[in-house]
Amino acid sequence: MSTAQGPLVVGIDSSTQSAKALVVDVGTGRIVATGQAPHRVTTGAGRESDPRDWWSALTEAVRACGPAARRAAAVSVGGQQHGLVTLDAEGSPVRPALLWNDVRSAPQARRLVAELGGPQVWADRIGSVPGASFTAAKWAWLAEHEPESARATAAVRLPHDYLTERLTGRGTTDRGDASGTGWWAGPTEAYDDTVLELIGLDRGLLPEVVAPGEVAGTVREGELPFARGTLVAAGTGDNAAAALGLGLRPGTPVLSLGTSGTAYAISTRRPADPTGTVAGFADARGDWLPLACTLNCTQAVDRVAALFGLDREAVEPGGSATFLPYLDGERTPNLPHASGLLTGLRHDTTPGQILQAAYDGAVHSLLDALGLVLDADADPAEPVLLIGGGARGTAWQETVRRLTGRPVRVPRAAELVALGAAAQAAGLLTGEDPAAVARRWGTTDGPLLDPLPRDEATAERIAGVVEGAGTLWAEE
Fold first, then answer.
1. Shortest CA distance to 166 belongs to which of 127, 223, 237?
2. Is residue 87 within 8 Å of 159, Cβ to Cβ?
3. How many angstroms separate the CA atoms of 50 and 92, rounded?
4. What DSSP character marks residue 317?
5. Which UniProt keywords apply (predicted)?
């Protein structure tokens, strides 16, 4: 290992499934050590995890980094958003955490929207219209279904808050992650007492919101191989951490291709979408991170490939088939009761053409989401940053190029949440904007694919099918 040019920092990504740790050279952005350990998630009616498992996995991941972790001068945690962590007076979990993808709180979310005055009131007052994923709905579910757990709760935390508090002994959060709770208001950048009263949550149970660039605390003595006094940054939610990891400037579009798809961009204007499609998240720096999701992305397309016994890259051009791969319902467009729909078949339609149609349908939904999060004055020629598990797939790249008409850049950096957390930690040491740190590290370096002429005919055909099919899945 070559000599580091600057101090070392640790960035941690505590996701739904695992903890990943990177030790990064502040001077060069070079990753000098890595570690990873899995989490356990329950299956069945809910999605829950024991927060102590996250801590054990974090500890294992950091220890796997070896001696480099002890040399780190600062550390930061990026964590899965929205999860509800309830702690007792001793700081132990009252019950397993309710995770972002636990949808049992959907009825409570609908009730909260109505009780505050409707979607427009939520958009104006909070910045987002809460769904089942939002922490406010999860607390309302807990209070209704497990009142004894709610009464035993002495502190309410988000997943990254819990881990940061284990590091420092101090209850803190940041604006980026707090903006996904439903009880932190974008216009005032503070907890909203009206919402807290509505859900029956005592403000005194919540963590302090640490401002961007401030130190959350220092590492206390414990089982981790950090030197005592190592600085701890505020941390943030995973999407805000990934935005830091990309060094995003306002107006740069991002498409994340995972099991579900995500479209987001940095904005200097606070979003407020009363339809609930765009979540009006704050970023970790002081700007905003409007974000929209689709439910069907790589997993849906891979399922179509499996049905035909095809490799996922075995697409064929041409044909008249249109496929809406809404295998799990869909969020963008808002068709929660939808299913997959295939139309336009001919005698000469091939399986490869149907697979391409599945890619087209998935990307069309993502581009609808992207159109909602970008400011009206965003540069339409700005390259799309393509990240996530599908980003290196040729069929995904070519479909995005063809349906956007934009250039596409595929960053080589993979662990963007951990890199964003590392950039946040580095900012404590250098005084730099963490996004500027990531740009200095060259985290978006990678192939730049030239734009293709936009395939207007396919885009219009898919839009027509979506419009005509919406009545098929009206809510019962």
1. 223
2. no
3. 10
4. -
5. Transferase
The pLDDT confidence band at residue 223, using thresholds 50, 70 and 90, is confident
Q: How does residue 45 score in pLDDT terms, banded at 50, 70 and 90?
A: confident
Residue for token digits 């590091």?
167
Q: What span, in angstroms and rounded, lies between the C-alpha atoms of 39 and 289?
A: 27
* pTM, 2 dp: 0.91
How many angstroms separate the CA atoms of 397 and 401, rounded?
Answer: 6
Please determine, for residue 377, whether its predicted confidence score (pLDDT) is greater than 90. no
Taking CA atoms, 191 is separated from 158, 203, 355, in Å, by 14, 8, 47
Q: What is the pLDDT of residue 1?
A: 39
Active site residues: 238
What Cα–Cα distance (Å) separates residue 273 from each residue in 22, 184, 219, 292, 457? Answer: 36, 16, 39, 11, 29
Dist CA 419 CA 325 (whole Å): 32
Q: Which two tokens stand for residue 323?
A: 């496929």
- Give the dihedral of Cα atoms 266, 268, 269, 274; nearest 10 deg: 20
Alpha-carbon distance of 324 to 132, in angstroms, equals: 24
DSSP states of 365-424: HHHHHHHHHS-TTS-TTSPEEEESTTTT-HHHHHHHHHHH-S-EE--S---HHHHHHHHH
Rounded to an integer, the average pLDDT of 97-105 is: 89
